[in-house]
């Protein structure tokens, strides 16, 4: 469980990294919507993992955008250092957040299963009195 201090620093990191990526970086490889979804901070506050969600046209462009952000870690780190007032500025490590991708994939599979179920159902004939052998619970 994160302490109050870790939560406060995580919030500052989220705001600073988001602002830097969207307004301060001018790398043409960064295409699409990039958002910071989560920040995990070590207990000693010397390391932080920043999880990024990148919405781009295809996987190749997504990887190029991620590589460009990792390449710009120095300027992002320097800007974060100016935003923090503490003695330490956590070392940032960037990871792709797969939660949204996994959620979308799960929703796609559920929709596909529902469609297959509705196709395989036998239509009810009106006027038949069908009673199941055992009551449904």
CATH class type: Alpha Beta
What would the average pLDDT be, to the nearest integer? Answer: 88
Q: What is the rounded distance between the termini?
A: 40 Å
Q: In sequence order, what are the helices and strands, one letter per element?
A: HEEHHEH
The count of helical stretches stands at 4
CATH superfamily: K homology (KH) domain
Quick rundown:
It contains four helices and three strands; from the N terminus they run H-E-E-H-H-E-H. The chain has 137 residues and is of the alpha+beta class.
Which features characterize this protein?
18% strand; 137 residues; GMP Synthetase, Chain A, domain 3; 4 helices; alpha+beta; 49% helix
How would you describe what is shown here?
- There is one protein chain.
- The chain is α+β, with helices and mostly antiparallel strands and 137 residues long.
- The protein has a single domain, classed as K homology (KH) domain (GMP Synthetase, Chain A, domain 3).
- Helix content is 49%, strand content 18%.
- The protein contains 4 helices and 3 strands.
- Strands 1-2-3 form a 3-stranded mixed β-sheet.
- A hairpin with a 5-residue loop joins strand 1 and strand 2.
- Helix 1 packs across helix 3.
- The mean pLDDT is 88.
């Amino acid at each position: 469980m994160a302490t109050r201090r870790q939560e406060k620093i995580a919030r500052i990191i989220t705001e600073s990294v988001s602002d830097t990526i969207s307004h301060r970086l001018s790398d043409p490889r960064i295409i699409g919507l990039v958002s910071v979804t989560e920040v995990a901070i070590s207990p000693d506050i010397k390391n932080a993992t920043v999880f990024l969600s990148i919405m781009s046209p295809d996987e190749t462009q997504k990887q190029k955008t991620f590589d460009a952000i990792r390449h710009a870690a120095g300027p992002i780190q320097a800007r974060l250092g100016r935003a923090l007032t503490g003695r330490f500025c956590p070392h940032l490590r960037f990871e792709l957040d797969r939660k949204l991708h996994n959620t979308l994939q799960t929703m796609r599979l559920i929709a596909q299963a529902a469609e297959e179920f509705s196709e395989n159902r036998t239509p009810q004939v009106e006027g038949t009195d069908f009673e199941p052998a055992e009551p449904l619970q």
